[in-house]
Amino acid sequence: MEIWINPACSKCRSAISLLDAEGADYTVRRYLEDVPAQDEIRDVLERLGLEPWDITRTQEAVAKELGLKEWARDAGSREQWIKALSEHPKLIQRPIITADDGSALVARSDEAVRDALSR
Hints:
This protein has 119 residues and is of the alpha+beta class.
């Protein structure tokens, strides 16, 4: 499994602590440094079963600068959102765990991390 984290994020640190406590085998991806390409974002979205606006941190300063709250949330705008996430990775919700079974989830709670461990 892989976990996308921002080390400054308390939810990410909590998820890592729980993975370590459970003895999980995982890889850390610091996605602000190792920025996911648009294809990787599309893949993770498919695994999550979500749309790009569902994993966008709309309260970030860059989101406000881009005017994301006014962007359409439809199929025609999907690529615009994916491009924004790739160009501004700080907008990506965290942490995201890609599980060994091919699924993924946004692991913002201990329950979500445990769910990933059970897959």
